[in-house]
Structure formats: C-alpha cells, structure tokens
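Hi R.,

Quick one: here's the Medium/long-chain acyl-CoA thioesterase YigI sequence you asked about.
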Amino acid sequence: MEMGQQVLKQQAFSTLMGTRLVHLTKGEVVLELPLREELRQQYGFVHGGVLSYMADNALTFAGGTAMTGPVITSEFKINYVRPAQGSMLIARARALHAGRRQSVCHCEIFVVTEKGETLVAVAQGTIAAMAPREES
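And here's the predicted structure, written out as tokens:
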C-alpha cells in the first residue's frame, strides 16, 4: 500500500485531481475521487474524461501489482453505463489474467450519493510490462 501511495504522489495529474488510494493488494485496487464542480460537464454530470482517467489509473494499478517491474497501459475500452452525479467516484479494478508481459484487467466505476453506490462505467484494459531502457 505504501508503494502505491508513493506512485500515486509521483503522478502530478493524480495529485491535481485529488485521487486517493484506499485499497491495494496483488492484482486489486480501489481508488476514490471526491467530486467538485470543475470535474463536471455542462449538464452537471461528471465528465467522461474523468471517468476514463479513473479507469485507466485503476486498471494500471491492478495490472502493475499482478506483474513484476514497471508497467504502462497498452489499451483500454470503457462503457459509460449512466451519467454520474454524486459526491465521489470509486474505481474498483482487478487483474483477470497476468502473464510476464501483459495483464488483462477489469474495472467498475461507481458514483456515491446519499442513497449509496451506483455503477456508472465499466472498463477493460491491457497493461504491458515496460521494456528496459537502453543507456545512451
């Protein structure tokens, strides 16, 4: 968990967004994002780019903890299930399969309201091991 907190702090964009890492084990992660007006689009819903960011980060944390060494997102797909309106987003991701070079991960994103959690997006992605950098 401590290493995950350090990685999140190194991501300037995650710091700007206010993302919190609340759970991290091998192949599983839970991220939270308190919502504010700047993260909403013109109709008052959470912007799709914010949901995509949460999916991307959660998928990569899940895949990265299931593999060895540094990783990056190779690709992901997201389905917006319904508009997100509430006070916080929660992204829960897990690695479905992890190999030496890539892992396939699944993420569900929920919005929190006074009534509880509601599913707002589902994503699946491939996380790839980074090739060692060559010294120049």
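The beta strands are 20-25, 28-34, 71-80, 88-98, 102-113, 116-129.

Cheers,
M.
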